[in-house]
Amino acid sequence: MALKTIVVFVDQTAASDARVRYAAGLAMRHQAHLIGLFIVPNAWQHDRADSNIQGGAAIHEMLERHNLIESDALRAAGRSFEAMAARDDASFEYRAVRGGDVGELVRLHCLHSDLVVVGHPSAGLPAGWSPEQMLLSTGVPVLIVPASWPEGTIARKVLFAWNASREARRAITDSLPVLRAAESVSVVVVDPTNNPLHGQEPGADIAHHLSRHGVAARVEQLQSRGEPIAEVIRRYAAKDQSDLIVLGAYSHSPRRELLFGGVTRTLLGKVTIPTLISH
Fold first, then answer.
1. Please, are residues 19 and 127 in contact by the beta-carbon 8 Å criterion?
2. What are residue 9's DSSP bridge partners?
3. Do residues 249 and 141 lie in contact, with contact meaning Cβ atoms separated by under 8 Å?
4. pLDDT score for 74
5. What residue stretches are annotated with the UspA domain (predicted)?
6. Sign of CA pseudo-dihedral 16, 121, 182, 157
7. Which of 22, 80, 188, 241 pairs with 220 at a CA distance of 20 to 30 A?
8. What residues does 95 pair with on adjacent strands?
9. What is the reported pLDDT for 159?
């Protein structure tokens, strides 16, 4: 698999700039087509008093004003996206989504991509949607870029969280182009002796598999000593100066993680390093 189509969610916040810069850099590295997806704001949400307007002329003026607000937002977001996406020989386009069923329209656009890029804490997604929901509803891997992430550091030192689950295995396939392009990949196994699925030498077989695909991988076996696994991963990422975390999301069901907590929910609760999730 190659990374050839990337969708990034665009809005009018400062957080949008970080994710668009990241997505544009990733698209250039992989010679991928970049799609900026903007959800046009509903002007009705800005002034509820408009619902009390009466009279033909007043209603006409209100509709004109709403159209102007939406058009201005559309153009401003488009200019910002194009300023960051327009690089040498870059392939990109800007799309807008509006209407009542925005969630399903957005989902349709994402289904035809190899990767979806969103932000944190502001994801840029439709109201009520989360990165996890986008992942689970489309099956397309989602890369979450924190608003504070500096320009220029894009997936050079990758931490791959391996727990020998179906989801982690899927994450390898989904992220393989990114792993190949990285300078180094740390396959991190936490509490390996607690999981018989790892085999005799935890992490070794999957590292060999990655190396056959041209990935510069090494295995790091870590002990949690009772600490939450997500915190062990975060601490190692900081120590190793990782600039991307890759994991298979929800090895347990999302409902179980909601009730009892889990690695996915904890890592996504506070994203400080770009994180690619797959399911």
1. no
2. 37
3. no
4. 85
5. 4-146, 156-277
6. positive
7. 22
8. 37
9. 98
Considering the domain boundaries, does residue 152 fall inside one? no
Using the structure block, give the residue that is written with the tokens 């969103």. Answer: 118
Spans of the chain, pLDDT less than 70: 43-67, 88, 99-100, 251-261
User: With left for phi above 0 and alpha for psi between -120 and 50, is residue 147 left, alpha or beta?
Assistant: alpha
- CA 197 from chain centre, in angstroms, equals 28
- Could you tell me if 273 and 192 lie in one domain? yes
Q: Where does a domain end: 92, 112, 146?
A: 146
- Determine the pLDDT at residue 229: 93
Tell me the whole-structure pTM to 2 decimals.
0.88
Query: CA separation (Å) from 29 to 5, 54, 99, 204, 261?
Result: 12, 55, 34, 29, 36
**How much is the pLDDT for 13?**
84
Q: In 3D, which of 109, 129, 126, 130 has the Cα closest to residue 42?
A: 126
| 219 and 194 housed in the same domain | yes
CA pair distance 114, 151, nearest whole angstrom? 23
